[in-house]
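Field: sequence (string)
Field: structure_tokens (string)

Example rows 1 and 2, in order.
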Amino acid sequence: MATTTTSGQMPSAIANAEAAPRPSGLPQDVKIYPSGGVYLCTPTKRFEVFITALGLSSPVFARMLDPSSPFLEGRQLASSSKDSPAQVALNEDDSEALEIILNIAHHRGENVPKWLEPEKMFAVATLCDKYDMTAALSGYASAWTGKLTLEDVKGKDAIRWLAVAWVFKNDCLVEDVTEYLIKNVKYHVEEGGTSGESGSVSPGKRAVKEKGLVDKVVLTFADGTELCTDGIPTKVLDSLNNATIALHNSLAKIAYSHANPLLTTIIPICKHNLAACDRLQLGTLLRYISVAGMPILPSSHEDPQTLPLISAAEILTIFSKDENLSNILPQATFDLTTRAGREAAKVAAKEAPRGPNVTSRVSTTISRARGSQREKEQPHGECSVVTKVRKEMLERMKVVTGLRGLL
């Protein structure tokens, strides 16, 4: 006996078909262009498209889906029919990203998201680059990336934003992201190979293949988060590597420029002529240099070449530690019976660091004809070489800019 609906009418076959549950494991049908007669298939979705629209938006699709082309996809179209339409497998493509670029190619703007998360935007940029659709997506790409600032692209997704900026030709975003990466990434070289010969790559360079060997340079943040550089052009990575190494070496040069006089000068550099102060400053500075991953005694202080195994931001943090060196500086005695002694004592008092954790270590002795008066403690003047290094490093970091002119 036939069933009826609650209104007494017979349900249509179409309604029954739409209501029936879809068998699991089958890709979802998405009609980008109904009656297009060609299907692009991913593991989860099957898109019906119009090959003429695709060809106008993508020269890659135009060649790939040309029935006269030697490509497998073209041969499939040549042998297809209305009853047996061509089904082109794109198993490596992200289904959601592919749907976005297909909607754009078919001028279905109402189905294109106004904003994309970093991971999805990276997937779209990857397909855009793969199918050479930068021109077709330019308007949407400008809307997606135009309002991004440096704060938006910081963190573990920064390298993805760099790939997006490169594909969509957003020069300002390339500069912002590369500036952030130059200051915050460090390097780790993973050696490997398939032959018995040994080989390596220059510090900071990308992976190269030579004589069957492959060495890989891994970019990481301070917390150890590894940055995937897949999809980043060699030109961009090489420029990023060179700029990062240059910044790292310039910070090392600043540290060495202050350590070298302390190592080679016999006469105390301390403004109060205290050799013990110089030794204390030198020991602290060399310890910071070592912690920062720099050679304590490089072959050349003028042009140091060190591998950025620690980021520039981390180097600055190391040299920003407050050691409260004034607490352990030796005493300096000023003779207040002389004008020079009184002036030196005033300078020491003015330049001394202030704070609850700073203890006076400089005593002034007043010698007069009637005898010595009670000693009055004054703070030691600011002699910290580390403080000078930190200030110069901060100034160097302020002038760092991202990469320009790559697009």
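Row 2 begins here:
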Amino acid sequence: MEVEDEDGIPFSYTRCYFEPQADTSWALHEGETKFERYRRYQEEEVEDRWEEWDLAEWLVKNLGQTHTDEFLKLSITQNCTKLSFHNNRSFLQRVDALPHGPGWSCRKVTVCGNHKDELGVPLEEEVELWSHDPVECVQELIGNPFFKADMAYSPAKAYADCAGQHRVIDEMWTADWWGKTQKVLPKGATIFQGDKSAWPVYMSIGNIAKAKRHQASAQATILIRYLPAGKLNCFTPNACSLAGYRLFHHCMALLFQPLIATGQHGIEMACADSLVCRIHLILAAYVADFPEQCLISCCKENQCPNIDSPMWDPESTKNILEMRKNGQHPPEFEENSLCAIYKPFWADLPHSNIFLAFTHNLLHQLHKGVFKDHLVKWCIDIVGEEEMDARFKVVPDYPGFRHFKKGILTIKQWTGREHKEMQQVFIGLLTGVVPSRVLVVVRSILNFSYYAQLKIHMTDMLDALQTALGVFHANKDILKELSICKHFNIPKLHQLTHYV
């Protein structure tokens, strides 16, 4: 059945076919968002103060506080304008009374080190932890009428055809995770899907369409915490690093503490469509680079923290860490290269698998990692540095393609843009100068990269992504035969296996 814009389905999907999941996102009753309450308050005010907005905006943009105070105290201003504020202080009080997002709170965290003073007393360090309440941040986002047309409240399978043969996977609500998690919740529950980025900590919700989340002007991503960056001089140098890891998990545990109860039992929230639903707050995605993924997984950087690795199971990992804390020596602790972080922040988060939540990093894993640091280097070893540079220079200029008229050796600061521009001409300039099997290897990696960058995936595209990786592995031994690469035990190459 072709579904128009109903039940929270964004406009961009009106040409798709949907198979909605039953017994999800029941509306409990009609409600009123904070924005609607303030609008009603404005409409019910006896005095019309709309004309003050233009003046207030002008004061904020053009005058400092001293000049604002002088302007408001002028006789002509007070006698002719009849403003609701008469000086800078009362003006700022009016501004502060406007609706605003969640407030900041500061918590002091005392860290007791293993370094002692001259009296033998352990040194301590106090750090500040500034944060917003994540539950209030979710209420702010999910109840914002600006996102009403871009909000989804329930999972569904999307298809490009009415027969359901070609599945479309784009937003979070069209993937499998939301549907599987929905089945373990009470009937009618609505899932909030949170995701965060590196320090400082940002949060958004997967219910909002990603095209809207990616717009900076939409403000669909909220800064919720500043993690402390203390020097931890109260620890000896060899213990400082582990202490920093434990401090990170402790601070993140404080941040996510409200998500434990709301993830298990849910909380009623007025949504952007003015209907009240029981929302379950679940950490679904975590955006982090590889070192931070290892920090979160409580492992060293010689391990892969991805869920597909057999050793990574939240419950078993917690059990191993608990045994180590109690003085036992489970062999899995050393085998998995775990760190002595006995209370991970994700330990008590309901319905959340932190190892499944990690997102892929196209820039550092594909463009800079596999392509620039490995594939280009292998080809340069085959062709020669000067020959490779000369071939980049002589590639004909063409609209839409970058002409490396000075070659690539003069580029000092590489960005993702340069990597993508190199990929556009890389196969062409290698033709005739490297063995055909090397070209197959290069083409397979580039095909994988282009498929991985697609904003919308279908099942046949995911099959093509897996096929490209299989072609690479089937032909990679040519690099060993040419004595270009001794082994393929390369972390960034291994990470490609987790994309599908």
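free_text_note (row 2): The longest strand covers residues 105-116.
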